[in-house]
Amino acid sequence: MRVMIFVCGEGLGHTSRCISIGRELVSAGHDVHFGAYGYSRELIERKGFKTHTVPSEITLVGKAGSLNLKRSILATFKRGQFLGLIKIRKLLKRTKPDVVISDSYFMGMISAKSRSLPCHLIVNQSNMEEFFKGKGASSKILVELVKKSYIGMFKMADRIIIPDFPLPHTVCRKNLDFREAAWKKLFFSGPLIGKTFEETTSKELERPHVLCTVGGFGYREPIFRKVIEAAGMDSSINYTLLSGPSVNPESFGKLPENVTILKFIDDQFPYMKASDVVIAPGGHSTMMEALSFGVPMITVPDQKHSEQQNNAFVIEKDGLGKKLDYSASPEDILENLRLLIDDEKYTKKLTEMRKMAEQLNGPGAVRKMLEEIVRN
Questions:
Q1: Tally of CB atoms within 10 A around 97
Q2: 219-277 pLDDT, tens per residue?
Q3: Which residues lie below 8 Å from residue 301, measured CB to CB, with a gap of 6+?
Q4: Per residue in 84-105, pLDDT tens?
Q5: Which residue, among 212, 327, 178, 371, has the nearest Cα to 281 in the 3D structure?
Q6: Mind listing the domains of the chain with CATH numbers?
């Protein structure tokens, strides 16, 4: 079976879960090709996959570290993608896949269906209109445009893969809003992560240990500094903080002895397995990784980012961690860390989630689904 996987390059969460599917398919002897762009393409190429450059689909517009989704969508529509569609159709004609997977890359879907190829869409959000609530009359028009685009894509897809736990345990459930016909197409695969708990060797770290992936740049820097302050209040808890490749760790001055700052970790799973808590924004992929490793979370979702806010709400509601915002004090952070480390109810709940992720085997479930469809 030959599979083409198109990846939306805006955010590495899309890339990491597609790599997990590609890895599973290749291990089963299938021929896998990727269509990607930017840093996403570079990362996939480094993993050794057959990679083809495709046009970027979304034009991101923002200012001072904040994404302006309304302006981004307008810029994307204005740019037009007719030449891009022609290029992707030629790529599909040349590679001759049996089936196409598109992770939020809609040009890939349109091109696949125009060539009568079965195409499966990966999404963890279907209610983009949430971004525009209460933002004026012009935004209402844009809401309808975005909504119609999404509904059209859902109709076009043969299957809609939700890379999450099945209901009622789905973390992204507040971000899912489908019409009845689309609900029948949903396939809850389970988490799609790069490594499983069992195949990961734990990093040798002092316990208890906290892994913080918030990053020390832009509007997230204040919460990053508060985590460092919290670390200085209790030397019994150890920390690894990821500052981001563009940030010099020395810029944070003298650090408490229980804090290590790294710019980047090529493979964060050994750190995750050795950690007792993960501090992260509200991104879906990081949540799936932490839950699959049985690690509770402190989520600090970006303000006015409805998807992240919804994900973080579910994490706290389901007893999988705590939700904080940017106004949280170092004392608040430390209090919640101690709670997640010491309270056995969190340990029990997260162990259940880890075992569920193992049983679901998300990448394996997607492979079996594709094999069955192509076989039939």
A1: 22
A2: 889 999 999 999 999 999 999 999 987 788 888 889 999 999 998 888 899 999 999 99
A3: 281, 282, 308, 309, 311, 312, 323, 325
A4: 778 888 999 999 999 999 998 8
A5: 212
A6: 2-190+361-375 (3.40.50.2000), 209-357 (3.40.50.2000)
